[in-house]
């Protein structure tokens, strides 16, 4: 084979290879797709508060305009061996006994009602007070302890510490209202976890086990506390034959619409007669037992055939939110009374709420 022929053949083969590779490149094709996913906390706000529901008798008060309690060596209250009156005023509240003591302590302020915010959001608290209309007693808007006017008068107020300073709200016949914001729990109190197929914000193991009185409790959780205080004048009280006026207080913390319950099942009772059980679960569901107690009366609400139930967000197996509304007959019977609803859950535990009507 001549050199000339070999050069021609090499050129033809080279052209064929280039053409062949071009055909393959033009025919090759690829495709692909990807779907997006979102990792996010669906309900970031958690509502979790500790709110006392029943103050018992801690708002009962004693007026001592002439100082007769001390003048008689505290005989009515068992003497100094049984009672201790500490203060300079003339309106007395009986406080809780010290641990291990049988001495009844009396001071010029009631024991506090303390609410703690264990939520990861700020919450608002509202306290309202009403005073029954008295006869022959003037209700003052400030202290009357040094007033010697003959006509009997008294001063009663809610007292709270707000922005590190005490603030008093005089309770007049028209009532009084105090509102405040309680800051969210410490950042140390919450963590984000993946539970049952979703991301949730929840209390850490340390925070969830803390109890009121523990060293770290006030570090993790902010609080709001209020007391009653007051005094009376040194007038002529001998003509007052009726008991001093009754004071009634209601305190509430409303759950924001964006927040989810974070403290297990709970129950609320509004002055409109709506009873709502929230946070019910498969293990802690409604056991068809709700008892309403008021005065000396106690009734099983499930037995009322006229009860209006809302079961749209509740399931007998998985739980949810269940509510019902007391009818007009109930509301009429409860006016002026303090009522407590006690709900029994399927695990045998109970949840309660107290409301002043």
Kindly provide the radius of gyration, computed on alpha-carbon positions and rounded to a whole number of angstroms: 35 Å
Query: Shape, please?
Result: elongated
Largest sheet: 6 strands, mixed
Tell me the number of strands.
Answer: 26
> Beta-sheet strand percentage?
35-45%
> What structural class results from the helix and strand content?
mainly beta
Relative helix content: 10-25%
What are the low-pLDDT stretches, counting only 5+ consecutive residues below 50? none
Rounded to the nearest angstrom, the distance between the terminal CA atoms is 119 Å
Draw up the topology in text.
Layout: H1 3-27, E1 45-47, E2 49-50, E3 62-63, H2 68-71, E4 83-85, E5 91-94, E6 104-107, E7 113-117, E8 123-131, E9 138-139, E10 153-162, E11 165-170, E12 176-182, E13 190-195, E14 198-203, H3 205-209, H4 217-220, E15 222-232, E16 247-253, E17 259-261, E18 266-269, E19 274-280, E20 286-294, E21 297-300, E22 308-310, E23 314-315, E24 319-325, H5 328-334, E25 338-345, E26 350-356
Parallel strand pairs: 1-17, 4-6, 9-10
Antiparallel strand pairs: 2-7, 3-5, 5-6, 7-15, 8-12, 8-16, 10-11, 10-15, 13-14, 18-19, 19-24, 20-21, 20-25, 22-24, 23-24, 25-26
């Amino acid at each position: 084979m001549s050199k000339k022929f070999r050069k021609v053949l090499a050129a033809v083969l080279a052209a064929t290879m280039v053409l062949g590779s071009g055909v393959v490149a033009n025919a090759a094709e690829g495709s692909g797709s990807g779907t997006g996913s979102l990792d996010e906390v669906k309900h970031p706000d958690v509502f979790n508060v500790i709110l006392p529901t029943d103050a018992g008798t801690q708002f009962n008060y004693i007026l001592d305009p002439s100082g007769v309690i001390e003048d008689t060596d505290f005989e009515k209250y068992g003497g100094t061996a049984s009672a201790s009156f500490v203060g300079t005023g003339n309106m007395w509240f009986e406080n809780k006994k010290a641990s291990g003591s049988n001495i009844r302590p009396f001071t010029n302020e009631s024991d506090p009602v303390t609410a703690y915010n264990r939520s990861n959001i700020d919450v608002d608290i509202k306290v309202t007070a009403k005073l029954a209309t008295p006869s022959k007693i003037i209700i003052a808007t400030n202290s009357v302890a040094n007033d010697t006017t003959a006509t009997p008068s008294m001063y009663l107020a809610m007292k709270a510490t707000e922005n590190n300073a005490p603030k008093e709200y005089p309770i007049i016949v028209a009532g009084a209202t105090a509102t405040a914001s309680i800051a969210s729990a410490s950042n140390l109190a919450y963590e984000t976890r993946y539970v049952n197929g979703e991301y949730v914000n929840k209390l850490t193991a340390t925070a969830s086990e803390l109890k009121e009185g523990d060293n770290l409790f006030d570090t993790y959780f902010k609080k709001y506390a209020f007391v009653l205080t007051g005094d009376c004048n040194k007038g002529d009280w001998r003509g007052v034959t009726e008991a001093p006026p009754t004071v009634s207080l209601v305190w509430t913390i409303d759950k924001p619409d964006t927040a989810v319950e974070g403290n297990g099942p709970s129950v609320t009772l509004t002055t409109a007669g709506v009873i709502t059980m929230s946070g019910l679960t498969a293990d802690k569901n409604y056991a068809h037992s709700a008892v309403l107690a008021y005065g000396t009366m106690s009734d099983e609400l499930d037995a009322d055939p006229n009860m209006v139930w809302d079961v749209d967000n509740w399931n007998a197996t998985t739980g949810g939110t269940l509510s019902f509304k007391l009818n007009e007959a109930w509301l009429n019977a409860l006016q002026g009374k303090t009522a407590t609803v006690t709900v029994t859950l399927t695990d045998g535990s109970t949840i309660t709420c107290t409301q002043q009507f």
